Amino acid sequence: MQADAWSPPSVLLTVDLVILTLREGRLCVLLVERGEAPFQGMRALPGGFLNHAGEEILDAAHRELSEETALAAGWVHLEQLATYGAAGRDPRGRVVSVAHLAIAPGLPEPVAGTDAMDAAWVPAKDVLSGEVELAFDHRRIVTDGIERARTKLESSALATAFCGELFTIAELQQVYEAVWGTELDTRNFYRKVQAVEGFIIPAGSGRRSTGGRPARLYRAGPKTVLFPPLIRPVPPATEESTREERE
């Protein structure tokens, strides 16, 4: 075959956003209702195509965060998650998505924009269970994003991204419980958090009333890597399955 007989295939590039926050103690993911084909009327992750060939991927992620949801990107933790490029993932042609994970505390009610008819916070468990159906391969992307967050909570300070500037240890525990989907022993959690030097630091003498004795306030410390790590508990169902496999 002659070299000049080949031409590169036409491939389109998009960014998709897995935006997580805690609302009323529950881990929630932001979904939009698609306003146009394909999958018009179905829920999906916020995202879209690059504006032009010169737009940087991270810039596109920040732009979509603002355009689709009217959320400011400046104080949102944003990191690249993974690339999704299966040949049949989009009926419009060969479309590759660079997905990003975004996390912030107490995000407000979203406002839909551009090609989205609506935007809303949806409990993550409803997406993971399949109770809420998503367009494209977005359920897989959400699953990967939540698992990334769950894993990073063990060995990094990512949990503080779900908190405000000041927080109590009880509020930090609520983050771990919501993201991991399991209850934690309060005394054990307090001991483990305090054992990680530089993870959180006292915020002066300030305290917050929690209905009982006022709780001490903390802020994120300088350490981004946790040692020793906070290991995620093994769910009871998994423990039973492991025992059955060994037997």
UniProtKB/TrEMBL annotation:
Pfam families documented for this protein: NUDIX, WHD_NrtR
InterPro entries linked to this entry: NUDIX_hydrolase-like_dom_sf, NUDIX_hydrolase_dom, WH-like_DNA-bd_sf, WH_DNA-bd_sf, WHD_NrtR
Domain Nudix hydrolase, chain residue ranges per copy: 12-148
PANTHER family reported in the protein's UniProt record: ADP-RIBOSE PYROPHOSPHATASE (PTHR43736), SLR1690 PROTEIN (PTHR43736:SF4)
Stated name of the protein: NUDIX domain-containing protein
Species this chain originates from: Streptomyces heliomycini
